[in-house]
């Protein structure tokens, strides 16, 4: 299928945006990128393209907008069928990949968020939940090289930024969410995935990510967000 | 009787609307299965084994391999029994993405709103009702835009998004009765009202969806068991 125009509205620090960018890069698709200043300064164009949830990322292909990062990734795989295969082929494997991506978003992301926006005893409780969530997530990896098997796939794309972001949050908040005690295989995957060329060369600058995460935590505690 | 070599089981409940989603999909595809009903107050060992992560119904077990999460199960059914029955997901990638988008939206919005609307804090009901009605307006517009003049979101026949919405809409009448409010007003959302009639009358749906009275009784039973004094 001839590609006409692909535009992506996102944010440089957003795991949801980066997932989609990695999917586009895996397929070798050229796209125009528009960085949105979230959450307070969204562009008129973004709000026009996604009036329902008003969130990034939004992919526009041939003038038609799509939202929801995991939905967008499957769209990319369904549309650009030549080249890299992002989703597994077998229906059962596809169901498993979708299940774990949903678990990662529902449980792991929210646990991380709770840990980084709490303190004291409450934080200890959130930390315990986060550690358990990552321990469970590790089941999807097992002894494989990547979640997708020998090559990175849908589930790797969904979770990759955590490999970069969790160590940063752990530093800011002085806790350990993923370590050799609760998820040794996942920890090893962190190292492997961050070493993949395409990922390595497209991560946000670490110091910028550190500063932003610290700022968000402070904003949260001061009631701004 | 199952197809030769195929063993299909569904762990669910006849008054669970999330369970109704794979049941409708299996009926559309003409796939036979063993329906293993759970009691809401006591989870079976099989459920706990098959869905250790969430411990929730529905769970499809196909040739001993469990699949969890209702719409993931529906998609699995569509991708597995490809030569049986109609296609559940649209064939066009963009339409497919839109069906998934609206499903994600509905699953994010409706369950929590319905919980508040049938919940123990009457003060929260007006705000929840407003949000619910606003969501219905968005779906009404989506239906007008995407179904190209046909009745269902899937076109001539029911599809993925119809099945997803059906399980939320199945609660509307029961919620209206429990909370004493109107949610779906035909004058405001005529297409959705017509969609409801056709969806709940569809041959793959009508014997599966629990009746309003059943849902009202079920909700009342669950609510009173939680507010009963501890023994």
UniProtKB/TrEMBL annotation, chain A:
CDD domains: GST_C_Tau (cd03185), GST_N_Tau (cd03058)
Highest taxon of the lineage: Eukaryota
This enzyme's EC code(s): 2.5.1.18
CC per GO annotation: cytoplasm
InterPro entries: Glutathione-S-Trfase_C-like, Glutathione-S-Trfase_C_sf, Glutathione_S-Trfase, Glutathione_S-Trfase_N, GST_C, GST_C_Tau, Omega/Tau-like, Thioredoxin-like_sf
Record GO terms (molecular function): glutathione transferase activity
Every GST C-terminal domain range: 90-220
Pfam family, one: GST_N
One BP annotation, GO: glutathione metabolic process
Domain (GST N-terminal): residue spans on this chain: 4-84
Keywords: Transferase
Catalytic activity annotation: RX + glutathione = an S-substituted glutathione + a halide anion + H(+)
PANTHER family to which the protein is assigned, alphabetical: GLUTATHIONE S-TRANSFERASE, GST, SUPERFAMILY, GST DOMAIN CONTAINING (PTHR11260), GLUTATHIONE TRANSFERASE GST 23 (PTHR11260:SF760)
Family, per entry: Belongs to the GST superfamily.
Protein name stated in the entry: glutathione transferase
Species this chain originates from: Rhynchospora tenuis
UniProtKB/TrEMBL annotation, chain B:
Gene3D superfamilies, sorted: 1.20.1050.10, Glutaredoxin
Entry keyword Ribosomal protein: no
SUPFAM superfamilies, per database record: GST C-terminal domain-like (SSF47616), Thioredoxin-like (SSF52833)
Record's catalysed reaction(s): RX + glutathione = an S-substituted glutathione + a halide anion + H(+)
Location within or outside the cell: Cytoplasm, Cytosol
Any one Gene Ontology cellular component term annotated for this protein: cytosol
Pfam family, one: GST_C_2
Domain GST C-terminal: 92-226
Alphabetically ordered keywords of this record: Cytoplasm, Transferase
Domain GST N-terminal: 6-85
UniProt-listed Enzyme Commission number(s): 2.5.1.18
Record's function text: Is involved in the conjugation of reduced glutathione to a wide number of exogenous and endogenous hydrophobic electrophiles.
PANTHER family recorded: GLUTATHIONE S-TRANSFERASE U17, GLUTATHIONE S-TRANSFERASE, GST, SUPERFAMILY, GST DOMAIN CONTAINING
Name the record gives this protein: Glutathione S-transferase
Organism of provenance: Rhynchospora tenuis
């Amino acid at each position: 299928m001839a590609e006409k125009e692909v535009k992506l509205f996102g944010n440089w620090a957003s795991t949801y945006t980066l997932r989609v960018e990695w999917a586009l890069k895996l397929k070798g698709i050229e796209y125009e990128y528009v960085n949105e200043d979230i959450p307070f300064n969204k562009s008129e164009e973004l709000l026009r393209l996604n009036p329902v949830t008003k969130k990034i990322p939004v992919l526009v292909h041939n003038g038609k907008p799509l939202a929801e990062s995991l939905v967008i990734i499957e769209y990319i795989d369904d549309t650009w069928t030549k080249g890299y295969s992002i989703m597994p082929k077998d229906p059962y494997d596809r169901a498993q990949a979708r299940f774990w991506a949903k678990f990662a978003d529902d449980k792991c992301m929210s646990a991380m968020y709770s840990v980084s926006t709490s303190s004291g005893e409450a934080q200890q409780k959130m930390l315990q939940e986060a550690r358990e969530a990552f321990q469970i997530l590790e089941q999807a990896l097992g002894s494989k090289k990547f979640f997708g098997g020998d090559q990175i796939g849908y589930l790797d794309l969904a979770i990759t930024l955590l490999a970069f972001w969790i160590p940063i949050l752990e530093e800011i908040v002085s806790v350990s969410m993923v370590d050799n005690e609760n998820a040794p295989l996942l920890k090893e995957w962190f190292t492997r995935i961050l070493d993949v060329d395409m990922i390595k060369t497209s991560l946000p600058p670490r110091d910028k990510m550190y500063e932003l995460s610290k700022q968000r935590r402070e904003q949260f505690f001061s009631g701004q967000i | 009787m199952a197809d030769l070599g195929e063993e299909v089981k569904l762990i669910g409940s006849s008054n669970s609307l999330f369970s109704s989603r794979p049941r409708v999909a299996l009926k559309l595809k003409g796939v036979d299965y063993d329906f293993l009903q759970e009691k809401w107050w006591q989870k079976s060992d099989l459920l706990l084994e098959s869905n250790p992560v969430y411990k929730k119904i529905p769970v499809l077990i196909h040739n001993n391999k469990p699949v969890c999460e209702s719409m993931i199960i529906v998609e699995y059914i569509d991708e597995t029994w490809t030569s049986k029955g109609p296609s559940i997901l649209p064939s066009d990638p963009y339409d497919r993405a839109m069906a998934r988008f609206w499903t994600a939206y509905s699953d994010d919005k409706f369950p929590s709103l319905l919980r508040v609307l049938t919940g123990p804090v009457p003060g929260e009901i007006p705000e929840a009702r407003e949000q619910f009605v606003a969501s219905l307006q968005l779906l009404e517009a989506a239906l007008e835009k995407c179904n190209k003049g046909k009745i269902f979101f899937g076109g001539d026949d029911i599809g993925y998004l119809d099945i997803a919405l059906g399980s939320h809409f199945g609660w509307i009448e029961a919620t209206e009765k429990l909370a004493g409010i109107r949610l779906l007003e035909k004058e405001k959302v005529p297409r959705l009202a017509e969609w409801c009639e056709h969806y709940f009358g569809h041959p793959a749906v009508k014997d599966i969806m629990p009746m309003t009275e059943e849902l009202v009784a079920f909700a009342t039973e669950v609510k009173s068991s939680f507010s009963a004094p501890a023994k």
